[in-house]
Amino acid sequence: MRSLPGTPVRQDEPASGLRPTRSPVHASSGTRLGTARPRQEGPTDLRLVPPALAAWGTAALVLDAHPAWAFGLVIGCLVAVGLLPSARRARRARVASWPRVSAAALLLCVAAAAASAGLHGADLRRGPVPGLAREYATVTAEVELSSDPRLTRPKVRGDHVAPTAVLIDADVLRVQEAGGTAVTTRAPVLVIVDAAPPGRVADGRGRSPWLGLLPSTRLRVSARLAPAMTGGDRVAAVLRVRHQGEPEVVGEPSGPHRLAGRLRAGLREATDGLPADPRALLPGLVVGDTSRITPELEEAFKETDLTHTLAVSGANFTILLALLLGPPGLAQHVERRGLAPRLGISLRGTAVLGGVLSLGFVIVCRPDPSVVRAAACGAVALLALATGRRRSMIPALATAVLLLVLYDPWLARSYGFLLSVVATGALLTLAPRWSAGLRRRGVPPRLAEALGAAAAAQALCAPIVAVLSARVSLVAVPCNLLAEFAIAPATVLGFAALATAPVAMPVAEALAWCAHWPAGWIARIARAGAALPGGGVDWPGSWAGAALLLAATLVVVLVGRRLLGHPWWCAACGLLLALAVVQPPPLTRAVTGWPPPGWRLVMCDVGQGDAMVLAAGAGTGVVVDAGPDPQLVDHCLRSLGISRIPLVVLTHFHADHVAGLPGVLRGRAVGAIETTEFEEPADQAAFVRRLAAARRIPVTRAAAGEQRRTGELSWQVVWPPPSPPPDSPSWTPPGAPPGVLPVHPPAPEGPNDASVAMLVRTAGLRLLLLGDLEPPAQRALARSPAAEALEGVDVLKVAHHGSAYQDPGLIRRAAPRLALISCGEDNSYGHPAPGTVAALRAGGAAVLRTDRDGALAVAGGGGELRVARD
User: Fold this and answer.
1) C-beta of residue 526 within 8 angstroms of C-beta of residue 479
2) What are residue 608's phi and psi, to 5 degrees?
3) Three-state SS for 709?
């Protein structure tokens, strides 16, 4: 039979025009899987994109607006829809029909978004809670939890670590001021349980009872209300709970949340016996439980743009749907794959099963923006599958965005939601084109697809990430490529362990053990990428910086397209990029001059804190203090090429000297850690002991008289004196010459006076490192048997960041040629004190400080002294 012009015969219909008997879609076709001709797609349907974007922008703007403005916008949009040309007039001019419908749809979506955002914004101002918060009233409230409890990350404030707190999102259902009557209301609040009990949250040796609460649990708390911390929050107030006892539960969680809690707890139990990184990463990858993720591991994932693998995301749901449905391109073909056709489940039955899986996925993994977006897109796709209609995924994504923003307008301001949508859009638009271009240039298909997806997601998401972190990762694409192969097996095995844990824990443990290999691979990729010296570059953390990065990315893409046709140029550019990322020490020294040849001491620029490195051979150094930030000290050590550390000396346990210890230990062989005997603050001393125990590093205590040597480097501990036996009224310093009378060492008044002070000798130079000694300990040191050895040193590390509390006698006795001060820029303590700097200069010392001069390297030997700045 001949086909009419413009009406091609369908390839799946016989020439007679008779419709064949339809066979079940899960039956075998008798042909090899995947041989069916793919269905031809028309141009991408973008009609839903403008209404979705308009609703998104409207919701973000109207949330803070007065309800009258929102109401006026709704009325204005409805009036504008009524003023559009009528349908009869549109039919007369068919060209104008679709623009009218599009304009009407856009205006209606704007009106709906304005109404929804106005109502949600008004919820924050409705009821008694906002007024009581402005008065900082103490209340008794009944609250219903809406999220899992989570811990704040430790933050260094000065020389201490801020107390850890438990944060919980909740809704206030009843509130009663002291002496008043209870009022029924519903207002979203952030519950903060301050200063968790020692031994439970603060030092990590146990779990606070607040951390075991599940969403939908009802509590009665006595607390103080306070206004929301920043404008634009989705909470009406902050509820600060001061006591740390057991929470008073007045209503148990719902059945689904109890089931989800048991599943999550079962997965944690199944992963208890795994190594540290997989034990922390696997629950986050599967169900979004990041409670075990350490700050250093989290930072490594941020540096490599692998943060989306730390918590459950849309990729996890895609993997589960692919396991159920098979490849999306074969979903309605007779050769479709996946578990459903192999179990004989029809298309509509598969859609129903997928819907149940979506609901369970959201409940177990919690409705975070990426999870909700993934589930919404999956639901739209499942609806298309159930009705037998093929839909483009761009309309599906636009529909998901529109519905989610109307349901929860606060998502319009969520960076997580923005990143999730942008990444999905990149995978649906740019990735296929880029992977096709790579295939045309001879790249293997699977590699081209993976490379196109990673590059497209990075190109569009990097500007947003730069706004959040003020940094651009240069290793994100290769790290994501290497991690991609492990995400699917880790996710599938992790979900299998999650499902089997409640009924067969040994099986769940075996599955978790199998999953720990791919999970550990992802963690190793993140740590290795973060350890590269040039793995990232600082970037302006603003939307102007984001626009600049987007423009730079566009230039790179345009230039890259031309370079792909010139293999030698591609190889040269790749080599230059690899050298910039790896930064081999010889090349870096030749280009930047840092570190200077023959350096003996480097004072790292770690902000308001102390961290120094003493050269002890090629790639080897003794580290004295670790500063307050692991990233800063790690960067300093990497720039020096330090990979082996025979000894880490922690002068005392204040956080600005020890909190950066994880950065010192990161990827380096450490022989021992030496500390002072005075273990205060106790939480920081316990922190050091835990890190040392986890790495099996011995911890020793320093005392005056101790002498050590490694290569050309030698040093003597001159303070603190060893603690005398309980029945000894006096003490004689070890190694003191005959005739020295016993002395009574002063009891330290605090951690500063217990600092380890060292006299270092290297290449003919003498360096005096004083830690944070205060005047009482400085005066005692100046009268000690070691005082004579302290006279006329070459370099003095000034005590306590150059504070005003110095002993003039010790400074005159030391008479340094060079004085180094480690302090933070614009610090609130006023360090260094002008009087201390003046006294040092009056004694003939050149004074350098890290807040103005950056990292400082001392080089030379045999009396010659040189200083270089980074």
Assistant:
1) yes
2) -80, 85
3) strand
pLDDT (mean) for 808-837: 92
Interval 714-764: pLDDT, tens: 999 998 887 655 444 444 544 445 544 444 455 667 889 999 999 999 988
Which contiguous run of DSSP H or E holds residue 869?
A: strand 864-869
Query: Which tokens sit at 704?
Result: 């005056």
How far is the CA of 299 from the CAs of 110, 274, 537, 582, 663, in angstroms?
Answer: 39, 21, 15, 19, 11
Token readout for 467 is: 């706004």
Q: Is the peptide bond before 720 cis (omega within 30 degrees of 0)?
A: yes
Rounded to whole angstroms, how far apart are CA atoms 623 and 601? 10
Question: What are the CA-CA distances from residue 423 to residues 78, 709, 716 (Å)?
Answer: 34, 55, 57
Count of Cβ atoms closer than 10 Å to residue 320 Cβ: 20
Q: In sequence order, what E strands does 534-626 have?
A: 536-538, 599-603, 612-615, 621-624
d(CA 160, CA 608): 12
Tokens of 318: 């895609």
772-798 pLDDT, tens digit each: 999 999 998 988 888 888 888 999 999
* 832 upstream amide cis, omega within 30 of 0: yes
What pLDDT was estimated at residue 19? 43
Cis peptide before 681 (omega within 30 of 0): yes
From CA 78, how far away is CA 86, in angstroms rounded?
Answer: 14
pTM exceeds 0.90 for this model: no
Q: Stretch 319-348: mean pLDDT, rounded? A: 61
Residues paired with residue 166 on neighbouring β-strands, in sequence order = 151, 193
For residues 157 and 654, give the distance between their C-alpha atoms in angstroms, rounded to a whole number.
10
Q: Work out the burial of residue 108: count CB atoms within 10 Å of its CB; fewer than 13 is exposed, 13-18 middle, 19 or more buried.
A: middle
Our measurement of the distance from residue 851's CA atom to the centroid of its chain's CA atoms, rounded to an integer in Å, reads: 27
State the alpha helices, DSSP H only, in 505-584.
505-531, 543-563, 567-582
- What is the 8-class DSSP label of residue 72? H
Question: How far is the C-alpha of 699 from the C-alpha of 658, rounded, in Å?
Answer: 14
In this structure, are residues 803 and 608 in contact, taking their beta carbons and an 8 Å threshold? no
Residue with tokens 């201390």: 836
Tell me which residue of 278, 172, 684, 228 sits closest to 520, measured CA to CA. 278
Helices assigned H by DSSP within 271-342: 276-287, 295-303, 314-325, 339-342
Query: What is the spatial distance between Cα 394 and Cα 689, in angstroms, rounded to a whole number?
Result: 53
For residue 572, count other CB atoms closer than 10 A to its CB: 12
Look up residue 421 and give its amino acid.
V
367 in helix, strand or coil? coil
Task: Convert the pLDDT of each residue in 525-560 to its tens digit.
Answer: 998 998 888 888 888 888 899 999 999 999 988 888
